[in-house]
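Marked as duplicate of an earlier ticket. Keeping the data here for the record.
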Amino acid sequence: MNKSGTKKLYSQRCYMRKLEISDASQLFNNIYSDPKVVGYMSWNLYVNEEEVKEYLTKWQENYNQNECYWGVFLKENDTLIGTVYLYDENTAAEVGFVSYCFGSAFWGNGYATETVKIVLQYGFNEIGYNNITTFVAKSNYRSQNVLSRLGFKCEATLRMRDKTDFGIEDCLSYSLLKSEMTE
């Protein structure tokens, strides 16, 4: 596998790049302080921009280790609308894991499907994954729809796996094989 790191990627309407400390305000305002987003995530709501700056400062070292973590920006106005994280889950079996979140103001526009697809292509074609996995809270129907549109298969229910605004709930485990990726 080729650990290429976070290269700039482009979709039809968006571009994806490394997050910088200067992105803290948009990341806080558009995503990390959004209770609708955090309701499905394993992290707590950020309460101020300084917390996000600290988080982004720590991430700069991860970028030096060739980690793949993108900010997703609209081409038309450079608005930060989401993040996508792709990392090694099992290097021996060439398995990666993808995670993403988008601000609720941008839900329902196809941005997640459009940009995650580009990241998946990068994972399969550049890094060399054979399989990319993820999981999603059972109550998160929007994310399940994104995964279905991308060709992921639901493989298992992970019982009482995650804490969401709905309480401790089951998660659904998904995977996509390189041979199943549609262009």
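See parent ticket for discussion. The chain is about 30% helix and 35% strand.
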